Amino acid sequence: MSSLFRLALGALLCAGCHARIVAWGEVDRDAVSVLVRRVAAARGLPVVHPVRVKLQPARTLAREVEADLRREVSSGALARRQRALAKLGLVAPEDDLEAFYREVYSDEPAGYYAPEEGRLYVVAREAFRSDVGEVVGAVTGRDPVYGETLAHELGHALVDQRVGLAAFLEQAPDDDAKMARRALGEGDATRVGFLYAGGRSFRGHLRRLAGVLGAYDRGAPGPRYLREELRFPYVEGGLFVEHLFRHGGWRAVDAAYRRPPVSTEQILHPERYPGDAPLSLRIAAQIAPGPRARRIYDDVLGERGIRAMLRQQGLPERDAADVAAGWDGDRACVWDDEGRLSLAWTTAWDTPADARAFADRYRALLMRWYRVRTSTRRSDDESTWSTPEGPIGVRIRDRRVVVFEGIDPGP
């Protein structure tokens, strides 16, 4: 290496030192200030008050994540979730949710924003810094290790200063609506991180990302539904935010926090936002398979959930998406009666044809799941059977479909 090149490289590295967010085991406040200014300019949101930043050792984060997981296991919440999702056809009965989440959360992030604290955590990590990476950081003024992740998280922080993200999520009436709100927030922040990294086509980036993740999923361990649950807010949420941005810039994105999307249907079909709101459905409180039965699931699957269930049960991707696209609302309840699970699920659809398409698919699934059965009623609008596990059936009422297993909720 020539002396001239060494001098040039040294000058670049020194000039770029301000880009390193973490140096010598401490957060460089000046580098963070530069990052905040860049993110605020990219997002079009001035800083309301200084963002609090704290360095967190990776081992501390690992202990906190492990403690959270142990609480979920010891309380029985994770086991109940696994059984409910299996009854709904979203995961396999033998899937190990604890192992899945333990693997997922073993990867330490570069940082994260905690809205309940209003604080940005920078995770001290052992990261490989190459000479090439340092030169790129010096030339661009961006930290090649922490920059994009922290830009994403600072995007959350700037929105939080105006919206209150913790309350924004908790105010969602059901899990599907909460996922839609998460998709708005993560899609927003993902776009900010992409802009910080100097990207040009966000839509193209998301399409490529979805392709890479889809290829990975075909051979990856663990339930596909849970993997997609983690990715949906970033990929589909990013596409939703990009749709808003192209039709009204950041002002349209800001307005969506004041009038948030109400379903994953609106995220998957941005043209249906904000006008196409789903019906609010309920399962009667008095319906239960027995006096000791307890509800372990009472929520909305949404278009995302129904699409995932049909695909999990063997329907091709495009067919599952086509059937689920007619969704207009649902509510599902799963009961645990001393180990025996029962399901009552009422759904609403855009047209009678959409309702019948879903009913036909679900009827075929019942035929596969319950080999031992005796038909008790068969017509165009209703099919019911008696099984050793209790009554099962599908009822169509114009644009509504009720399916049940182990309990008959009545007409």
Q: Could you state the oligomeric state of the chains shown?
A: single chain
Helix and strand content put the structural class at: alpha+beta
Query: Counting H and I runs of at least 4 residues, what is the number of helices?
Result: 15
Mean pLDDT: 89
Distance between the termini: 83 Å
Rg result: 25 Å
Strand arrangement, largest sheet? 6-7-8-12-11-10-9
Tally of structural domains: 3
Large-scale geometry:
globular
Annotation, overall tally of beta strands: 12
Q: Which labels suit this protein?
A:
411 residues; alpha+beta; 3 domains; 7-stranded antiparallel β-sheet; 3-stranded mixed β-sheet; 15 helices; 52% helix; globular
Question: How does this structure look, described?
Answer:
It is a single chain. The protein is α+β, with helices and mostly antiparallel strands. It starts with a helix and ends in a 6-residue tail after the last strand. Residues 1-18 and 128-140 have low confidence and may be disordered. The chain folds into 3 domains: 1-164, no CATH class; 172-275, no CATH class; 294-405, no CATH class. The protein has a 7-stranded antiparallel beta sheet. It is 52% helix and 18% strand.
